[in-house]
Amino acid sequence: MEIPEQDAAHMARAVALAGYGHGTTSPNPVVGCVVVDAGGAVAGEGFHVYAGGPHAEVVALAQAGERARGGTAYVTLEPCDHTGRTGPCSRALLDAGIARVVVAVADPSPKAAGGAARLRAGGVAVTTGVLEGAAERVNEEWLTYARLGRSHVTWKFAATLDGRSAAEDGTSQWITSPEARADVHRWRSAADAIVAGIGTVLSDDPRLTARPAADPRLAANAGSAPNAGRAASPNAGRAAGAGSGLDVGSGAHADSWGGAHAGDGAGVRAPLRVVVDTEGRTPPDAKVLDDAAPTLIAVADDITTDLKAGLLRLPRHGDGLDLQALLRELAAREVVSVFLEGGPTLAGAFLQQGLADRVVAYLAPALLGSGRAALGAAGVGTIGHMHRLTFDEISPIGPDVRLIARPIAQPGREQ
After folding, report:
1. Domain covering 149-212+269-407, topology
2. What is the pLDDT of residues 283-292, one digit of tens each?
């Protein structure tokens, strides 16, 4: 389909706006909206900032006011047609007198879908599929959650140029630079859950908390044109909420696991910590069990343990746990996005079960020659079965390089 230049330009802006919601909208999607008046001039813009707050269409319509009548709304996700914490956006668009709605991605959620049909029934012209790929990419975590009924997984690792994540003696602090480690904390803070394996807990005793420093790039961008690059600023929504000129509200709501979202960007909710611990070996004094953030320990459903922690009992799968079941259980707890920081064994298991949706690798300009590999057994017995990926981004981070890639769909590998 040939897309008119003005439609492509306005939808690209809506996609950029949607990216500002990363890290604060869960369990809702990120959505951006641009309202253009009947004369073709931009009259209002908006993005969804936090669950329970106004949706992108409502914010943009409020800015546009009477100029919305007879105009066009560009929305990255099909306007919702149900009443939840807020009213249906399809009704808001009809009430505003919008004449045409351009949608990038159809809503896959049975509860919220139907907005396009409602608008057409009300006499509004609806165009779909405009910049669908870009809009899917900016909203990939939620779309995975809505379509597959499981959490979206980003696997992160740090390694030397020869792929080592630790030296022969087990030492690994620090392979990468302070700049890279700060970037990791920004990614952590944008996720709903941080997942690690028992091997990592026993060897490193990590706290698995998100401790992001203020990012001057985000502060400079707040209130101006948002940067559409989600990967460069995974928690952009936290900076954009305040001072953006949008009426986003400031109320916080409790998550199902006890965290909190702050709608104005002033607060940061602590991601859930999840330890994959098949046999229940987590030490009672492990840092991951402190009160800095909520924690779940995923164990096999056939073990007996006296561990004083929140337990998630799961069926076994090979030598470990059924990770598909883990992601479904987390999704049931409204965990949309998972940041996987487990060691090579757990990472290999996620890849083998087809459950790594994105890879973020930090490579340091250093060589070890021996030591622990970043990735363990991943179900590859011959070169023709290797997990192939495609690069999204290659960026310098201090003296290191950050690579962002995603698996290429391959027959026989469930996604």
Report:
1. Dihydrofolate Reductase, subunit A (3.40.430)
2. 999 999 999 9
